[in-house]
Specification:
Radius of gyration: 20 Å
Shape: globular
CATH architecture of the largest domain: Alpha-Beta Complex
Largest sheet: 6 strands, parallel
CATH superfamily of the largest domain: inorganic pyrophosphatase (n-terminal core)
Strand content: 15-25%
CATH class of the largest domain: Alpha Beta
Structural class: alpha/beta
C-alpha cells in the first residue's frame, strides 16, 4: 500500500467511526497538541463522538491552540468502545502512557477491537499500529497531518491552519533548526493564507518568557560543560535548582522551556550534540539536539530506552543527578 492509499484509508476509517479516540504522547508538546486538535476539528465535522487524551498535559500552556480544552489527561476506562484509535506524534507505543492496555488490545482479533492508526514523524522504534503513517522526513507531525488533509481534498479552515503552523514553527525552532525544509516553509506560507495568525502564535511561543524562566536559562548556562574533542555540550538542572528558580505552579506554563534551552546549546559554535539533563521526580529526563548532518541523536536516545528523530530526541531513566569534576552523571 503506497502513501496515498494509506492516507485515503485513514480518512475512510475516521469518517466511518462513531466513537473515536485520539491519543498524544505523555507531557505533550505543541506539535502533539496541535496534531490532536486538527484531527478533533475534522472528526467534529464528521459527527464522531470524540475522546482525546494525553497524559500530563500542561494546564494552560497551550490554551491558544484551537480545541486544546477538549484534550484530557485522564485515559478512558474502556478502550474497546472505540471504533478507531488515532495515535499522534508518539514515536513509540510506550509514549502513549497506556502501553500495556494497548498491547492487550492488539492481541485480540481485529474485528473485536478498535482499528489503530498512527501518524508520526519520528524514527521508528517498532511497528505496532494496524495502519502506520510515519514520514520521518517531515519537520513535524502536523506536516504529516497536512499531507493527510491535502491527499483527501479536505478543507483546511482557520483552526486547522493554525494547528499545522503551530506544530511546524515549534518543532523547527521557528525555522532555525536543520529540519526547516523548503517544503515546511512553503506549507507555513499556505497556512497563513488559510487564516493562521502568525502574531498570535509568536506571542504565545516566543514572547511569553517569564523572569523565572530566564533564571533557569542562566543556571543551565552556568552548569554547561563542553568537550572540545567530541563536540558535546551538556548541562543539567537538579530538582533543588528548579524548585528555587521556577515555582512548580509556573512549570506547566513554560512547557517548552527545556527544549528551547537545549536547541540553543546545539546552535553554539563547535557543538555537534547538545544534551540537557533535568531531574523530575525519581527520574532524570534527557533532551538531545543536533544540527550536525552526520549526527543522529535518536540512536543515542535509544541507548536509554528513548527515541525521537535524527535531530531531536529524548529519554527518561530512573535516578538522580550527581556533579563530577568533568560533568554530570546519573546515579541510582
Amino acid at each position: 500500500m503506497n502513501l496515498i492509499e494509506k492516507l485515503q484509508l485513514a480518512y475512510q476509517l475516521i469518517r466511518e467511526s462513531r466513537q473515536l479516540l485520539i491519543i498524544g504522547h505523555t507531557s505533550p508538546d505543541a506539535d502533539a497538541i496541535s496534531s490532536m486538535s486538527a484531527m478533533i476539528d475534522l472528526a467534529s465535522g464528521l459527527g464522531s463522538e470524540i475522546c482525546a487524551y494525553a497524559e500530563n498535559k500542561p494546564a494552560g500552556a497551550y490554551d491558544f491552540i484551537p480545541h486544546e480544552h477538549l484534550i484530557t489527561d485522564q485515559a478512558p476506562d474502556d478502550l474497546r468502545i472505540f471504533d478507531t484509535i488515532l495515535i499522534l506524534d508518539c514515536g513509540a507505543i510506550s509514549r502513549t502512557a497506556i502501553e500495556e492496555r494497548l498491547r492487550k488490545l492488539l492481541i485480540l482479533p481485529g474485528e473485536s477491537r478498535p482499528f489503530i492508526i498512527e501518524f508520526d514523524h519520528h524514527q521508528p522504534v517498532e511497528t505496532y499500529a494496524d495502519l502506520e503513517i510515519r514520514l520521518t522526513e517531515k519537520a513535524s507531525t502536523t506536516e504529516v497531518i497536512y499531507q493527510f488533509f491535502k491527499i483527501n481534498e479536505l478543507e483546511i479552515n482557520k483552526n486547522v491552519a493554525n494547528c499545522i503552523l503551530i506544530g511546524l514553527m515549534t518543532d523547527t525552532g521557528h525555522f532555525l533548526h536543520a529540519n526547516s525544509s523548503r517544503e515546511a516553509i512553503a506549507i507555513s506560507s499556505e497556512m497563513l493564507l488559510a487564516g493562521a495568525s502568525l502574531p498570535k502564535i509568536i506571542d504565545h511561543t516566543v514572547h511569553n518568557k517569564s523572569f523565572s524562566a530566564l533564571k533557569v536559562w542562566g543556571r543551565a548556562l552556568e552548569n554547561l560543560k563542553f568537550n572540545k574533542d567530541t563536540g558535546l555540550a551538556a548541562s543539567a538542572l537538579t530538582t533543588q535548582e528548579l524548585d528555587e528558580l521556577l515555582p512548580k505552579e509556573l512549570r506547566e506554563a513554560n512547557a517548552d522551556l527545556f527544549g528551547d534551552i537545549v536547541s540553543f546549546l546545539a546552535s553554539l559554535a563547535g557543538v555537534r550534540v547538545a544534551l540537557l539533563l533535568r531531574e523530575e521526580g525519581a527520574k532524570v529526563k534527557g533532551s538531545l539536539r543536533t544540527n550536525d548532518e552526520d549526527a543522529d541523536v535518536a540512536k543515542i536516545a535509544q541507548n536509554w530506552g528513548g527515541g525521537g528523530h535524527k535531530k531531536a530526541s529524548g529519554f527518561s531513566i530512573e535516578g538522580r543527578l550527581a556533579r563530577t569534576e568533568t560533568g554530570w552523571k546519573v546515579v541510582k
